[in-house]
Write a structure and sequence with these properties.
Number of strands: 0
Largest sheet: none
Structural class: mainly alpha
Number of domains: 1
Strand content: under 5%
Mean pLDDT: 87
Low-confidence stretches: none
């Protein structure tokens, strides 16, 4: 099931053009050659997710599994804010975030390899700092 969900997500990223760093960076440049595609992709993702969250609230347990795996912390704390800033800077500079970067490993590995290596190093550094 996870493989199918990941493949569907990767296909959606590819079809929408979100694996192209120039398209993402063009969205982040409203005073230059602005491309609104990312706004439509985000809007298209928010609608089904809003429905899913509302539906999940009325379901006692998931179809597959014993319980929903939901975050315990619901507020915005310092760690979340710092993580969001680091994520946003990386996304703006590279034009990639984790999903498109993994998809690009298949489509254009030379372009994505450095980003994915840096991302994995960041994950490892985070885990080491939490131990």
């Amino acid at each position: 099931m996870s493989l199918a969900a990941g493949a569907l997500f990767g296909a959606g990223l590819t079809i929408s053009g979100m694996v192209d760093p120039q398209r993402v960076q063009a969205f982040l440049d409203p005073f230059g050659d602005w491309d609104p595609t990312l706004a439509f992709v985000m809007g298209g993702a928010m609608l089904p997710m809003a429905v899913a969250w509302r539906r999940q609230a009325s379901i006692a347990r998931p179809w597959q599994g014993d319980a929903f795996d939901l975050p315990e912390i619901r507020g915005i704390d310092r760690r979340l804010a710092i993580g969001a800033v680091v994520f946003g800077i990386g996304w703006g500079v590279a034009g990639l975030c984790p999903g498109p970067a993994i998809a690009d490993l298949v489509l254009v590995p030379a372009r994505a390899a450095l980003f994915v290596a840096a991302m994995l190093a960041g994950v490892a550094l985070h885990r080491l700092s939490r131990s």
